[in-house]
Automatic annotation (TrEMBL):
Organism domain of life: Bacteria
Family matches, as PANTHER family: BLR5612 PROTEIN, SLL1039 PROTEIN
Protein name: Circularly permuted type 2 ATP-grasp protein
Short name of any one Pfam family annotated for the protein: CP_ATPgrasp_2
SUPFAM superfamilies linked to this entry: Glutathione synthetase ATP-binding domain-like
Region annotation (Disordered) ranges: 499-545
């Protein structure tokens, strides 16, 4: 105890392991009992084994154009069964509401006619694509995979930070984290009932097969990747291998007569379902970027003709526009007749002149986020910004209030993290992954916990230098989750906390020796980071980690 915890200090956020200094919460008792007798040297040896295992297996993430081992902290994050039931129900509820919303806006548009969401919010979104109109999925599913980013606030309440329903990434690290942790902390696994995560590929494959076009009994599923230069290529390859399907690039596919086929050594083979890990803009040069070498010409026409299914669907990004996020509680009431189980972080819409003026007067106490941003890029956390940064922000927000939202600064919950040879409190968030097969929304128990490694930092996503933790959901008896009240959109501003400001990264130079396809792979990788999921972080790859 003395070696590891004697100088451990509770931070400004809600500490998930300790009620008081030295007094662990019930969910962490077994883990605390395991760590307590270890010396810092012994824990360091286990951490080194963990890091070497990731390096040897090639489990990496591209940071500023450089591949590095994905940083996994040795101290897991633990969630009690009853807490997880609320998360599970809340995530599934949001996915169902967003499914209904996407079907509506690319169809009848009744939600717009009824004024639940202003029409201008949808049509001015950078990710609303009219090209998606008329593409009706066979089983009605547009969101086969969702990643709903959560934080726990100062009282330990789970809140939604953002929704990611384009192409959310990070699930491969959930599976690999678990495999690695089972080897370095076997005594805790032996003493704790933890829900497994290895069924995710099977759940995903079932959802993809269920989305196959009508009349296809044994669909051919492929994973479409931008290529090896994409920051999440490891995940693309892992999921294809685990599902037992082909990993393909755009050059491996051809679309003729609204049929999509895969080139093989035995000739062309029809493809029925494409799990794409390519952004909309690069997916089909006929309808989007004409210079794209990553997608497949004619793919959208084939989808509109009902001959192939694209998962996730084109145009989903309008549902994770950060301004649309503020309307999700209203969408839940409108489509489902329910109150939101998981509340949002208190958020300001800036198109109202009075609200805009209120926010501009308090920039040094708020978090400003671009509505179409990802990967932590573009966030300005006012309490840590310079006068020059605030002045520039004031100008940008004043000229484009639709392009920004403002949120209060949230002191994210904290979990002990190995920093050097000592345990220190660090801020975390959580991305649960949901899979929708048309009959049920299944939520992977645990998800990806990201941790901000620098002291005091609140931006936790990997593209900004954050790490991860294995997320353990404790097994328990099933019961219904209890809904909670949703907060109003406009709220009083609390006292500021101590987060940091993160500048947008520069686009990398692809270098003189790289061809256009490689450059586009790098461009998508970078544009995704600069385009998730707050006060904690925002996400990018696609909707990356």
């Amino acid at each position: 105890m003395a070696d590891l915890f004697e100088d451990y200090r509770l931070g400004p956020g809600w500490d998930e392991m300790f009620v008081d200094p030295g007094l662990p919460r019930e969910t962490y008792e077994a883990l605390h009992a395991t760590l307590q007798p270890l010396s810092s040297a012994e824990l360091g040896v286990r951490a080194d084994v963990l890091a070497r295992a990731f390096l040897d297996q090639g489990i990496t993430f591209a940071l500023k154009g450089v591949e590095r081992p994905f940083p996994l902290d040795i101290v897991p994050r633990i969630i009690a069964a009853e807490q997880w039931r609320t998360v599970e129900a809340g995530v599934a509820q949001r996915v169902r509401a967003l499914e209904a919303f996407l079907a509506d806006i690319y169809g009848a548009g009744q939600v717009l006619a009824d004024g639940v969401v202003p029409r201008r919010i949808v049509v001015t979104s950078a990710h609303f694509h009219r090209e998606a109109a008329g593409i009706n999925p066979t089983n009605g599913v547009r969101i086969q995979v969702a990643g709903v980013d959560l934080i726990r606030d100062e009282q330990g309440t789970f809140r939604v930070l953002e929704d990611n329903v384009r192409v959310p990434s990070g699930v491969s690290y959930v599976m690999e984290n678990r495999r690695a942790m089972a080897h370095v902390l076997p005594e805790v696994f032996a003493a704790t009932r933890i829900l497994p995560v290895e069924s995710y590929p099977a759940q995903l494959l079932r959802a993809l097969r269920a989305a196959a076009p009508n009349g296809v009994g044994d669909p051919t599923v492929v994973v479409l990747t931008p290529g090896v230069h994409n920051s999440a290529y490891f995940e693309h390859a892992l999921l294809a291998r685990e599902m037992g399907v082909e990993l393909v690039e755009g050059r491996d596919l051809v679309c003729i007569g609204n049929e999509v086929a895969m080139r093989t050594t035995a000739g062309e083979k029809r493809v029925d379902v494409i799990y794409r890990r390519i952004d909309d803009e690069f997916l089909d040069p006929v309808h989007f970027r004409a210079d794209s070498m990553l997608g497949v010409a004619g793919l959208l026409n084939a989808a509109r003709a009902g001959r192939v299914t694209i998962a996730n669907a084109v145009g989903n990004g309008v549902a994770d526009d950060k301004l649309l996020y503020t309307y999700v509680p209203d969408l839940i009431r409108y489509y489902l007749g329910e109150e939101a189980i998981l509340p949002n972080v208190e958020t300001y819409r800036l198109e109202d002149p009075d609200v805009l003026g209120y926010v501009l007067d308090r920039l040094d106490r708020l978090v400003l986020k671009p509505v179409d941003g990802s990967g932590g890029a573009g966030i300005v956390i006012g309490s840590q910004a310079t006068d020059a940064q605030l002045a520039e922000l004031r100008t940008r927000v004043s000229h484009d209030p639709r392009g920004w939202i403002a949120q209060r600064e949230v002191a994210l919950s904290m979990v002990p993290t190995l920093i050097g040879n000592r345990l220190r409190a660090r801020h975390v968030d959580l991305r649960p992954f949901a899979v929708n097969d048309g009959d049920k929304v299944w939520v992977l128990p645990g998800g990806l916990t990201r941790v901000a490694l620098p002291e005091g930092a609140l931006v936790v996503n990997s593209s900004q230098g954050g790490g991860s933790k294995d997320t353990w959901v404790l097994a328990g008896t099933a019961s219904a989750a209890t809904p909670v009240d949703d907060p109003p959109v406009l709220v009083a501003i609390p006292e500021p906390v101590e987060p940091v400001s993160v500048p947008a990264p520069r686009s990398p130079d692809p270098g003189p020796g790289l061809g256009p396809a490689v450059a586009q792979q790098q461009q998508q990788q970078q544009s995704a980071r600069t385009v998730g999921e707050g006060a904690a972080r925002m996400v990018g790859e696609e909707d990356g980690c």
